From TrEMBL:
Residues 1-138 form the Nucleoside diphosphate kinase-like domain. It catalyses: a ribonucleoside 5'-diphosphate + ATP = a ribonucleoside 5'-triphosphate + ADP; a 2'-deoxyribonucleoside 5'-diphosphate + ATP = a 2'-deoxyribonucleoside 5'-triphosphate + ADP. It comes from Nelumbo nucifera. The keyword Kinase applies. Belongs to the NDK family. This is Nucleoside diphosphate kinase. ATP binds at K9, F57, R85, T91, R102, N112. InterPro entries: NDK-like_dom, NDK-like_dom_sf, Nucleoside_diP_kinase, Nucleoside_diP_kinase_AS.
Length: 148
């Protein structure tokens, strides 16, 4: 089954959105396979966002991610990478539809509350980076009520 890496950014934690965000993924039917509250070092944040290192906003982005605790998660389910991005909404909250997390809870692109992997390949890399000791193996007893 497909997995994705989801991170509630420091603004999402500070604003008390952890329960709301986890609830949206849970209620959709996705399964939580890894969860931790942590602060990250600058070098770690730079590694996570290495693909964006040439962007003018890179330093500000790294400062933002290291500015407070984040919630790192692994969610599992059919098409969870693409569907997770739909639940999150567009990168710029100004373009995110109401009903999405960013559409409902964010205004500025540099304070957009949540990260989600943008492909199965980046999910694999991000899960390996954030959960080097692996995730939790279990299967929800709701499985037959969610999948046909
Ligand atoms: P996404 O998080 O939707 O996958 P990107 O990978 O393009 O988007 O960018 C990573 C993060 O960098 C965004 O979520 C946002 O916090 C920040 N970011 C992107 N573009 C800008 C920008 N133009 N100005 C400030 N921050 C930005």
């Amino acid at each position: 089954m497909e997995q994705t890496f989801i991170m509630i950014k420091p603004d999402g934690v500070q604003r008390g959105l952890v329960g709301e965000i986890i609830g949206r993924f849970e209620k959709k039917g996705f399964s939580l396979k890894g969860l931790k509250l942590m602060t990250v070092e600058r070098a770690f944040a730079e590694k996570h966002y290495a693909d964006l290192s040439a962007k003018p906003f890179f330093n500000g982005l790294v400062e933002y991610i290291i500015s407070g605790p984040v919630v790192a998660m692994v969610w599992e389910g059919k098409n969870v990478v693409v569907t997770g991005r739909k639940i999150i909404g567009a990168t710029n909250p100004a373009d995110s539809a109401p009903g999405t997390i960013r559409g409902d809870y964010a205004i500025d692109i540099g304070r957009n509350v949540i990260h989600g992997s943008d492909s199965v390949e980046s999910a694999r890399k991000e899960i390996a980076l954030w959960f080097p000791d692996g995730t939790v193996y279990w299967q929800s007893s709701l499985h037959p009520w969610i999948y046909e």
